[in-house]
Amino acid sequence: MQKHKISAFALSFGLVVASFASIGGSVSAEGGPSPLSGLPGGEGKPVVMVKYGNSRPDRPHYNLNQSDLFYVEEVEWGLTRIAAMFNSKFPSVVGPTRSARISDLELLEQFDTPGLAYSGANDVLLKAIRKSQSISLSPSDRSSFYYRNLSKAAPHNQLLRLSAMMEKETKVGVVKDVGLTFNATPATGGTKTTSFQASWSSARVSGTWTGKTWIVSFDGSLHRDAVNKGFLTPKTVVMQYVERKETKFGDKFGGKTPLLKSVGAGRAIVLRNGQSFDGTWSRPTNTSGTTFLFAGAQIPFDVGQVMIVLVDGGAKKSPVTLK
Fold it and tell me: Per the structure, how many domains does the chain have?
């Protein structure tokens, strides 16, 4: 069996041996681990970012709990959206898909030719997407794989048949190492933490440690998947403090889109195994991966889904609360 990439910090926990179960269903043990979750089956497979809406009308999400890694991003008016990375498995349906944002393109520069599935964008951002190395997978590009859930109102009802699309897809490149390490042996040396919350002016994400995973709520409501009512249960949660910059982008109502700088360095709080590890992150260039350090060594994530919350590192008061 191919070994996971193990950091010096991970070696103190011991090497992991086992087969792993995906969140919400089994996954084939064939193929090496995903560099985004450590779950088997992702190595050498394509990687696709799916943009989910995350306002109340957008929820419940379809198969978000099947993603390897997902980012929570601030957008206009203090709301959030989700950028979910799929690699080890491609569910039959995902969404509701919403429009892309400038922060997505910087995140995707870690990969070679990743897919970007989204419902649209303003003209300026569409030009930026076309110039980027990402492969646009919007309804304009792959119209036969998108459809509307007529029981909900637009724009909160557009769904994507992801697995069917990826069976036909030839342009999206394979996933690459983006600097993360994984080890399933329980971490030690952190501060006991049983809950977290990150807040913006119009949104919040929170979670509680169950003894095995974190269980996530959005805006105070426990998240249940639209497909099977399963919970959203990342094994590792990261509060990544980033530079928040104003941009020329915005929505048609006058809201301004922030750029959340995932290139650079800053504080990072890694939560796993009911503990928090207050450390740092570093991503020197647009094309390099991100390393997360604690006590001077790279900290491994638990094997399983990862949630990274991008929070304002320049805020006068920290947007993160831990208990």
Answer: 2
